[in-house]
């Protein structure tokens, strides 16, 4: 571990940038820039270079969002806007699938079926299971969640905090009102900190729209309520819609053998991969993903609304151009179960990811990632920036996301924002802003170029360039310092900007909570708004 020592004196006169007019959570800023060789320069004023990069990323991804929406509109069943109703849709429990013995749920006084998934990597998982229920609604609903057979409960809460959902608690029951669609965690005091042994999730969906018919369209693969066992090799075809109705429980996996275009996978049903689980970490790496579209020449893909559980490998790999992943829910237990990764030109929004490998991989570029909620298990990262990338992936706008838990406790390089970059590419132009981190205490940032056992160093190394972390709020403190380091003086981590990052009960403006390697980094800026408005 290399903690940056202030080996160079601060510049004797002047500031790095020209002052500008004050604005909330904006300029003028105060802080420091850390450059190659150990030079440290104070910042008092604007950071126009950083603002210019951020504005460029935002403009590019807004154009990408419009392109993705235009392609999605061409899909036969591609409308993702909320439907007109009904006011409440509850889904039957599939015959043969046992209800959770941990919780029961009512919505507007009517029972909503509660599923349960058991922990699978029991040597490292600290949770025992996860329960969840799913319904769709318009307007508002009252939800009551009862903890069954649990003693000593004193209250309850709903995460994420940003949902601003007030609760009441009586007789082991947590009651609250929801007036908009949201995927949330219901937690019972005192067990509201990691590890929560029996998580309970509520997936409150918007009303469905653009639902395909059960019969009559030869390009629709329709799964109605009940259990369907289809196996791991279901091949996807161009111009196909796969629909999982609420109450459908599909034991299967979908794969594209080569490029596919104009594919929709949607609904309110469940896709279960438990039948593929070997019970062994290494053997599971040979299993297919739950939804696997790996050919990057594919185009126009929508995955919307469904829930994926018990994936032994990754959940959704959708590498098509012009991809939308909307309101998808994943729950998985193994080190090899990534959550979501989309291809070039993508919108990934309003999803709930509970994974034990990387939850959201940011690997292909021209991507909008917003409104997502992440519950990270002990491995992986909520936001993985690079893992041996060979290409110069660029232009990501990641914003308005919540990390409600990160259960890191034993893997040294774990972090909320993570890059372990050993590839020859130079990933660049990442803008993270308005990210909230609630229950995590290991590390916030780990941003490095470094070798690992999965990479051949003879292929060469790239760099990391132009990363902006702006308006990041961590509600808890961390036991491990943030790390920023390249691998040598020509393969650096450079132009990394921490702007109004609130952690350790303070807004950061210097490297006191960072390990920055002066021999392998350049232009690392840590600043806060001078008016004291950093997320206060």
From TrEMBL:
Secretion signal, residue range per the UniProt entry: 1-20
Keywords, sorted A to Z: Carbohydrate metabolism, Polysaccharide degradation, Repeat, Signal
Highest taxon above the source species: Bacteria
An individual GO BP term: polysaccharide catabolic process
InterPro entries recorded: Dextranase_N-ter, Pectin_lyas_fold, Pectin_lyase_fold/virulence
Keyword Thylakoid: no
Chain segments annotated as transmembrane: none
Record-linked PANTHER family: ENDO-XYLOGALACTURONAN HYDROLASE A-RELATED, PTHR31736
Protein name: Uncharacterized protein
């Amino acid at each position: 571990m290399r903690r940056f020592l202030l080996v160079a004196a601060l510049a004797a006169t002047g500031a790095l940038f020209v002052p500008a007019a004050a604005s909330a959570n904006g300029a003028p800023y105060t802080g420091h820039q850390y450059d190659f060789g150990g030079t440290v320069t104070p910042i008092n004023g604007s950071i126009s270079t950083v603002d210019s990069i951020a504005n460029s990323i935002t403009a590019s991804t807004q154009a990408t969002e419009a392109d993705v929406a235009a392609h999605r509109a061409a899909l036969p069943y591609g409308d993702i806007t909320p439907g007109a109703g009904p006011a409440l849709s509850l889904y039957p429990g599939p015959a043969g699938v046992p209800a959770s013995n941990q919780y029961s749920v009512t919505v507007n006084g009517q029972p909503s079926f509660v599923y349960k998934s058991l922990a699978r990597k029991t040597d490292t998982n600290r949770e025992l299971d996860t329960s969840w229920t799913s319904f769709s609604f318009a307007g508002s609903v009252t939800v009551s969640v009862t903890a069954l057979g649990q003693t000593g409960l004193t209250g309850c809460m709903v995460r994420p905090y940003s949902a601003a959902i007030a609760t009441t608690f009586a007789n082991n029951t947590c009651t609250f009102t929801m007036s908009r669609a949201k995927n949330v965690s219901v937690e019972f005091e005192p067990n509201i900190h990691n590890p929560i042994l029996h998580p309970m999730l509520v997936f409150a969906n918007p009303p469905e729209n653009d639902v395909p018919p059960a019969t009559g369209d030869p390009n629709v693969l329709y799964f109605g309520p009940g259990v369907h066992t289809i196996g791991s090799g279901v091949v996807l075809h161009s111009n196909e819609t796969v629909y999982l109705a609420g109450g459908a429980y599909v034991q299967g996996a979908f794969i594209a053998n080569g490029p596919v275009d104009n594919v929709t996978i949607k609904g309110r049903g469940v896709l279960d991969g438990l039948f593929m689980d070997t019970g062994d970490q290494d053997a599971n790496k040979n299993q297919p993903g739950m939804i696997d579209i790996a050919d990057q020449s594919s185009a126009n893909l929508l995955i919307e609304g469904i829930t994926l559980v018990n994936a032994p490998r990754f959940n959704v790999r959708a590498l098509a151009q012009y991809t939308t992943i909307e309101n998808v829910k994943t729950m998985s237990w193994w080190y090899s179960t990534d959550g979501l990764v989309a291809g070039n030109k993508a919108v990934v929004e309003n999803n709930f990811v509970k994974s034990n490998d990387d939850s959201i991989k940011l690997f292909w570029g021209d991507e909008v990632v917003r409104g997502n909620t992440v519950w990270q298990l002990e491995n992986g990262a909520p936001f993985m920036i690079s893992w041996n990338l060979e290409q110069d992936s660029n232009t990501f706008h990641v914003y308005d996301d919540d990390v409600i838990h990160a259960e890191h406790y034993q893997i040294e390089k774990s972090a909320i924002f993570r890059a372990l970059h050993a590839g020859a590419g130079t990933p660049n132009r990442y803008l993270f802003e308005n990210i909230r981190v609630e229950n995590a205490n290991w590390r916030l940032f780990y941003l490095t170029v470094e070798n690992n056992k999965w990479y051949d160093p003879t292929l060469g190394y790239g760099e990391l360039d132009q990363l902006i972390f702006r308006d990041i709020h961590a509600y808890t403190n961390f036991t491990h310092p943030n790390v920023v380091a390249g691998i040598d003086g020509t393969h650096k981590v450079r132009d990394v900007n921490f702007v109004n990052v609130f952690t350790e009960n303070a807004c950061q403006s210097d490297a006191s909570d960072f390990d920055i390697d002066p021999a392998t980094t350049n232009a690392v800026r840590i600043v806060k708004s001078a008016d004291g408005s950093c997320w206060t």
